[in-house]
Amino acid sequence: MTSDKSDDARSINQRVTIREVAAKAEVALSSVSRALSGHPDVSDEMRKRVKEVADELGYEPNLVAQSLRSGVTRTIGFVVRDINNPMFALLARSCEHELRRNGYSMILVNSDGNIENENRNFSLLRRRRVDGLIASLVSEDSPYLRKNLAGPTEEAARLDREVKWVNASAVLADHAAGVHEAVTHLINKGHREIAFVTGSNNVYPTRNRLQGFTKAFEDANIKIQPDLMAIGGFDAEYALSHARILLHRNPAPTAILAGGHGALMGISRALKEKNLTMGKEIAFIALDQLPYLEVFSDNISTVYRDTEAIGREAARLMLEGIEGEAPRVSIIETQFIGRTSSQGGL
Amino acid sequence: MTSDKSDDARSINQRVTIREVAAKAEVALSSVSRALSGHPDVSDEMRKRVKEVADELGYEPNLVAQSLRSGVTRTIGFVVRDINNPMFALLARSCEHELRRNGYSMILVNSDGNIENENRNFSLLRRRRVDGLIASLVSEDSPYLRKNLAGPTEEAARLDREVKWVNASAVLADHAAGVHEAVTHLINKGHREIAFVTGSNNVYPTRNRLQGFTKAFEDANIKIQPDLMAIGGFDAEYALSHARILLHRNPAPTAILAGGHGALMGISRALKEKNLTMGKEIAFIALDQLPYLEVFSDNISTVYRDTEAIGREAARLMLEGIEGEAPRVSIIETQFIGRTSSQGGL
DNA sequence: ATCTTAACTGGAAACGTTTGCTATAGGGAA
DNA sequence: TTCCCTATAGCAAACGTTTCCAGTTAAGAT
Questions:
Q1: Looking at beta carbons, which residues of chain B come within 8 Å of A93?
Q2: To which H or E segment does residue B34 belong?
Q3: Between the CA of residue A322 and those of A168, A303, A308, what are the distances in Å?
Q4: Cβ of A264 under 8 Å from any chain B Cβ?
Q5: Which helix (H) or strand (E) covers residue B266, if one does?
Q6: N or C: which terminus of chain A carries fewer CB neighbours within 10 A?
Q7: B158 has which bridge partners?
Q8: Residue nearest to nucleotide C19 (CA to C1')
């Protein structure tokens, strides 16, 4: 409870600066800077002396001043579409880890699915002079995008988004492949009434999944039934209301696909309402391996992608870009993992 | 002296500074600064003119320079014990939201349960001159704590940790109350062999839960059985191996408590191995309302606390502290929520 | 012995803001 | 008229670094 006076005056007052180190070591400011930053033009003697004094005084360089002078903040902004999706937590985590391993910090901001928020977030991060932006955009046709992605001063990397006119790095998952696999699996088992609930198609993952979905039908020479597709909302409410409608259809769907976290939540609630069990009365596949599924719902068939790899890869692309390398696009593969929830339904 | 060439280069590559705004508006630097920062000593005419020019040039203030000059970064560091625990994701999210609402950014760093990492994280954030630190410490007796929490220059707030000798704000959950309620519930139903798997007691939540646990036995005048308590590890592996041992005990436990995310994972795996179903052969209670439980495992009895409120409250304490108010401790209540998993077992 | 060079070291000017101080103009009071 | 405010505006000095440039010294080359 009692604050200690045991430390010297320094800890009560301001922080130690390079100037004080220089004074105590009786050398020039510039020498301290060079000694501490590993500059070659410093004698061993000098480096040793300065380091000793710096340690003794508990000197900790001011990154703010360093940034101002050097023009580099060693900070990356991470703009996330909607952090309610636990997928993003995982992504952010692995990305932060990789960045910090390379001496960068990450500032994470959440757009809450709102374009205006997203724009404000970009602006904030730009004012903070981050060295780079990693973004999972709310929409690929926001009116602010041009301003926010075409900035000349910082690197940009997109997470699972296509923006044709901007030449920045991106990590894209090959959703289509996994979805194709999953749907083909269902078709082969005899399913014809396959429902699909997903977010809006103003972002790449939705469009890409739809491609996989329709291609599977085409390849099987089966006509797709548009009224079994609910495309438009990422939230559980959208999914719940549309799943209800789909389940009342005649003929009822024998299988149902959830295009992400919100869809998964909404659909599972709708199924519970009608007392339908996944893998029994209806086949179910989650088109994303949400992290919480590992814990309890290990019966759920999913389209898997290595989310941590995506975060790590995004960080790598970012660092490469900062190093001056040309932007590139990295594709992460996906894979259907059949478990019991995709059985039954027929 | 810089040449025309470099001036050109600057206007293409570099960002607009206050100096360029001043030049174009034909006023002094200081006037631009005052006009844009809302300083009172500025005529309406001046403010209007400056704002117009600033907008026209797309001026965005350099927060790095502002920070250096003003000594304030409007950034809070959030040091999290182990981000693998989904609890922390939720916490961080609500905290970030509240901070940003008040004009602050958050830098989140993960200690991975390691004291050395934690120390490095503190050091990094201090070098970044954050205005405050919010920390869920790895341990309450780390040797680095004195250095890291007693800093004179930034505010500190603790998340669910007791450190008696430091006078900083804290948010503490009243785990004991909820656990007491839960255990009393079990005792009243006739349980006597109640097992408890939890993390190590070098942090407050473990100790506090233990208090509630033992008090419930005392109040019921029943002797506690120490060999039913596994205290020591936060990870699922620890919980798994100790749950196995506990389940082989004779007499076998009729109920089992999980003291957090890792314990929950480990125990549920151990139960599955022995083909025991929660709520049937054995009663089960999670001493934390992990966020993923809402999605699928809505049958699990828990001790609930409002995690988002904790994050929000931490942010508030931080902001209060920055405003100059005295540190204070905020208690969040907990509550036993009985569902089907805590039935059976007898 | 003198010149060159190499290996440092120190001084001072940036980086982009904020802010204390001083200067000016115009208006009201004396 | 003279004097003193008040309301603005501008100048210049910080903030804590890095880095360019110019010295200094000692050693090697001639």
A1: 83, 110
A2: helix B29-37
A3: 12, 33, 21
A4: yes
A5: helix B261-273
A6: N
A7: B135, B170
A8: B30
Q: How many CA atoms lie within 13 A of B287 on its CB side?
A: 33
Q: Going from the N-terminus, what domains does chain A have, and what CATH number goes with each?
A: 9-61 (1.10.260.40), 72-173+308-332 (3.40.50.2300), 175-305+335-342 (3.40.50.2300)
The span from the CA of B313 to the CA of B97, in Å, is: 11
Residue with tokens 């991060």: A125
Rg of chain A on CA atoms, in Å: 26
Taking C1' of D14 and every protein CA, the nearest residue is B69
Those residues whose C-beta lies under 8 Å from the C-beta of residue B56, and which sit 6 or more positions away, are: B24
Q: SS3 string of chain A?
A: CCCCCCCCHHHHCCCCCHHHHHHHHCCCHHHHHHHHHCCCCCCHHHHHHHHHHHHHHCCCCCHHHHHHHHCCCCEEEEEECCCCCHHHHHHHHHHHHHHHHCCCEEEEEECCCCHHHHHHHHHHHHHCCCCEEEECCCCCCCCCHHHHHCCCCCEEEEECCCCCCCCCEEEEECHHHHHHHHHHHHHHCCCCCEEEEEECCCCHHHHHHHHHHHHHHHHCCCCCCHHHEEEECCCHHHHHHHHHHHHCCCCCCCEEEECCHHHHHHHHHHHHHCCCCECCCEEEEECCCCHHHHCCCCCCEEEECCHHHHHHHHHHHHHHHHCCCCCCEEEECCEEECCHHHCCCC
Each residue of A96-123: pLDDT tens digit? 999 999 999 999 999 989 999 999 999 9
- The tens-digit pLDDT sequence of chain B (346 residues) is 233 333 333 333 468 999 999 999 999 999 999 999 999 889 999 999 999 999 999 999 999 999 999 999 999 999 999 888 888 888 999 999 999 999 999 999 999 899 999 999 999 999 999 999 999 999 998 888 888 876 667 788 899 999 888 888 999 999 999 999 999 999 999 999 999 999 999 999 999 999 999 999 999 999 999 999 999 999 999 999 999 999 999 999 999 999 999 999 999 999 999 999 999 999 999 998 888 887 777 889 999 999 999 999 999 999 999 998 999 999 999 999 999 999 988 8
Query: Which nucleotide has its C1' atom closest to residue B47's CA?
Result: D8
Distance CA A120, CA A191 (A): 46
Q: B15 beta carbon < 7 A from strand C?
A: yes
β-bridge partners, A107: A77, B107
Q: Under an 8 A CB cutoff, do B167 and A7 touch?
A: no
Reading the block at residue B185, the tokens are 């519930």
User: B224 is written with which tokens?
Assistant: 């506690």
Taking the C-alpha atoms of residue B218 and residue B180, their distance in angstroms, rounded to an integer, is 10
